[in-house]
Amino acid sequence: MRERPKPQKWVVYETATGPKTGMRSVCTAEEWKAVESRDPLAHRIVRDDITDETEAEKLARGTSGDLKVRPKPLRPTFE
Fold first, then answer.
1. Domain annotation covers residue 5
2. pLDDT over 80 (residue 64)
3. Rounded to the nearest 5°, which phi and psi values hold at 71?
4. Is residue 33 in some structural domain?
5. Run of H or E residues at 39
6. For position 72, what pLDDT does the model report?
7. pLDDT tens digit sequence for 4-26
8. How many domains does the chain have?
């Protein structure tokens, strides 16, 4: 019988300093500990304890990559 993988928690964080200020990224909770230990003031958490990676990616990406809403072309009506 296969062992089920341990569910991962995801973190969305934002760069707080430098030329890429405001850029959002996603990592696992374990990776966040390493990122924070390198420079605690360089990044800030947007949201943590996210159980779904897709949800975390959407939160980090915002509307970038979404389909553009385009109006339907008007068709002439013949009566």
1. no
2. no
3. -70, 150
4. yes
5. none
6. 81
7. 777 899 999 999 988 988 899 99
8. 1
1 falls within a domain: no
Return the structure tokens found at 9. 């928690």
Any domain includes 34? yes
* Other CB atoms within 10 Å distance of the CB of residue 48: 13
Structure tokens at 74: 């008007």
**What pLDDT sits at residue 2?**
77
CA dihedral 58, 59, 63, 67 (to 10 degrees): 20
Return the exposure string of 25-39: e unless at least 16 CB atoms fall within 10 Å of the residue's CB, then b.
Answer: bbbeeeebeeebeee
List the domain range (segments joined by +) for residue 47: 10-61
Q: State the Cα–Cα distance between residues 61 and 23, nearest whole angstrom.
A: 9
